[in-house]
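Continuing the series of single-chain predictions for the mutant panel. This is the parent chain; the variants come on the following pages.
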Amino acid sequence: MAIARHSKKRDAMLALLRGTDVHPGADWVFRELRPSFPGLSLGTVYRNLRQLTEEGYIRSIGVIGGQERFDGRVTPHAHFVCERCGRVLDVELPEDFKAPPAAGIYRVTGGEVRLRGICSECGEK
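Parent structure:
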């Protein structure tokens, strides 16, 4: 999928998000890219993340630990959020996963599944 408005910074952000599974916030993206783009501003990161989200290249998984977090993987899957450390993990959904039937719903076209609990690292401490 090609980005509508190309820029080296935007392309780098997309590549960074698609190459990690940490579900970062804008601050993390900024810290990772600043050495390669010394003139990069946090405002530019926020604007590009919003644009990439609106265009469907990445997705926002919501505010976790006070910061909006992003995912470079846009294929259907759920997320698990650790209540102790804030770690976000991808959770695979069965191929035949469907929303349970409910009165008044004609068709479900999308949605988010977010589970929470304690990750294995925190559970072993």
